[in-house]
Design goal:
140 residues; mainly alpha; Ribonuclease iii, N-terminal Endonuclease Domain, Chain A; 7 helices
């Protein structure tokens, strides 16, 4: 889905040396684009505002925290390592609408998405993205 957006493919070792907040920044963008495309595919009649409202359920820290908690058991050792690096990264800010624990889990989730994207592991990336929307991890 996002192949043509990648400017450089990193090896797993190169990606592991990146700051986990860099991975999270990439993962945030990838996940947001996936969610918006997913919502549009479900109902192309929604207004942009209604799409945004629906997307927020998934892309806010609480939603991402619920997703990664539901997926933890499915992660490989390597993926869990990347998630933990992102979760444990010291971010200079915490959003006002999330608690610190949710925000850290969300950052770990985003780091994992970013990692899978930049190493071009589309099979695992697609698996995690699809499970994130089809397993009802996110509660309204």
């Amino acid at each position: 889905m996002l192949d043509n957006l990648r400017m450089k493919k990193f090896t797993a070792e190169e990606a592991k040396r990146l700051n986990p907040l860099q991975l999270a920044l990439i993962g945030d963008g990838v996940f947001e684009l996936f969610i918006r495309s997913y919502i549009l595919g479900l109902n192309s009649e929604l207004s942009a505002h209604k799409m945004h409202v629906e997307a927020i359920k998934y892309v806010k820290a609480k939603g991402q925290s619920e997703i990664i908690k539901g997926l933890e058991k499915d992660l490989t050792e390597e993926e869990y390592y990347i998630f933990k690096r992102g979760r444990n990264a010291k971010s200079p800010t915490v959003p006002k609408n999330a608690d610190v624990a949710e925000y850290r889990y969300a950052t770990g989730f985003e780091a994992l998405i970013g990692y899978l994207f930049i190493i071009d592991d589309n099979e695992r990336l697609n698996y995690i993205l699809e499970k994130s929307v089809h397993n009802n991890f996110v509660k309204d």
